Amino acid sequence: KKRVMLKWFSLVAISLLAITLLMLSWLYTTESGLQWLTSKLTQFQPQALRIGKITGRLNSKVKITDIYWQQDGQTIKATGLEVDCHWLHLIDGLVSCDKITLAALDVTSVDDKKNQTKVVALPELANVTLPIAVKVKQISIAKINYKHAAVDGEQQYNVSALNINKLAAARSKVSVKAVNLQFESHDIAASGYIDMRKQWQHQLELKVQGTKLSVNAQSKGRMRKSSQLTLRLQAPNQLRVNTEWFLNKGLFLKRGSLIAEKQQIDEQTIFLEKANAAFTLNWPKLTSNLHAQASWNNFENIKLDIKTELGNILDWRASLESSLHISSALNDQKIA
Q1: Which of 70-79, 106-115, 117-126 has the lowest mean pLDDT?
Q2: Terminus-to-terminus CA distance in the chain, angstroms?
Q3: Is 121 helix (H, G, I), strand (E, B) or coil?
Q4: Burial class (CB in 10 A: 0-12, 13-18, 19+), 224
Q5: Distance in angstroms (rounded) separating the CA atoms of residues 336 and 327
Q6: What is the pTM of this model?
Q7: How far is CA 130 from CA 12, 127, 193, in A?
Q8: pLDDT confidence band for 157 (50 / 70 / 90)
Q9: How far is the CA of 48 from the CAs of 45, 68, 186, in angstroms?
Q10: CA separation, residue 246 to residues 172, 196, 249 (Å)
Q11: What is the mean pLDDT of residues 305-323?
Q12: 61-71 and 74-85 as β-strands: parallel, antiparallel, unpaired?
């Protein structure tokens, strides 16, 4: 009797395992399985979220016609989403995707209150540990449209051809091999990593190339203690900026310097012989001293000394104090 019961128990167990495997195979490899899973997940969908038609299979590509979310004056609409991911890796706590593409992303923000600039402390950089790891080979968004409507006006920004290559996130570290996009006829590229533990070690690089602006910026170090920022501007003029910086409930710049060599300022007759400036930022107060030597038409050896103090960089129009001293070979005048 025990042998008979053991045989029946083994047969039932094998049958249940086979049925489970068949169900998982149907769920993972067929479009009907995806539709069944979608119908079950819909009941947990928040009211602010609407998801359009979903097609495809989990073991290949999943396509979503549109995603719409609206709440508290914020509206986000994603159109033409296509996801190619390895969903079984979720068992190991990993989101692994070969490619994620989006035809258009529209973001609208409505603010019916007048902006009131205040001295606000930036959030403190705390240790961050991600609950799940992420590896995505490529993310592509054809168009991004952002519009902010407020009482005092409307602002709109358009980004195109956004491509993110080899995005990785694990525990406290996030890295990306390359981010490329186009904004107002300029090509923008970025890369680097951030480790969100303790001192927030990082290494980041940003390049902007276009007819109106050409700049290369690099930052390396520890965000919570000391980092070094180097910026080289090539257009519309040439200058170099170096500064130490760190974050502590605000942005702090130490020993900042700006150097500009001999160059023509515009297409007219203004020539800069040299310029240098020193600046510091003790959040939110910015101070700077600029010394420059230039020539303009018949005025030779024009010397400019500009001292500037911003009590609050978030409200610079109201807190700006500046003094300007100009001297030249032909006349001297002081404007304060």
Answers
A1: 117-126
A2: 107
A3: coil
A4: middle
A5: 13
A6: 0.83
A7: 41, 10, 15
A8: very high
A9: 8, 8, 35
A10: 19, 14, 10
A11: 77
A12: antiparallel
162, two tokens = 């956004």
CB burial of residue 321 (10 Å; 0-12, 13-18, 19+): exposed
Locus of tokens 């053991």: 6
Contacts 24+ apart (CB under 8 A), 175-183: 183/157, 183/158, 183/159
User: Average pLDDT, stretch 246-255?
Assistant: 93
Worst-scoring range by mean pLDDT, 54-58, 101-105, 191-195?
A: 54-58
User: Please, are residues 77 and 64 in contact by the beta-carbon 8 Å criterion?
Assistant: no
Model confidence pLDDT, tens digit, residues 255-291: 999 999 888 776 667 788 889 999 999 998 999 999 9
* Contact of 188 with 207, CB cutoff 8 Å: yes
Q: Judge whether 202 and 195 are in contact, CB under 8 Å.
A: yes
For residues 304 and 322, is the Cβ–Cβ distance under 8 A?
Answer: no
Helix 2-29 to helix 31-42 angle (10° resolution) is 90
Residue 290 tokens, joined: 């600029």
Residue type present at position 129: T
Q: What is the DSSP letter of 311?
A: S
* SS3 at position 318: helix
Q: CA-CA distance, 146 to 166, in Å (whole number)?
A: 25
pLDDT per position as a tens digit, 136-150 = 999 999 999 999 887
Running DSSP on this structure, what letter comes out for residue 92?
G
Radius of gyration of the chain measured on its C-alpha atoms: 29
Rounded Cα gap, residues 281 and 131, in angstroms: 35
Using an 8 Å Cβ cutoff, are 211 and 217 in contact? no
Helix (H, G, I), strand (E, B) or coil at 302: strand
The answer, yes or no, to whether residue 115 has pLDDT greater than 60, is: no
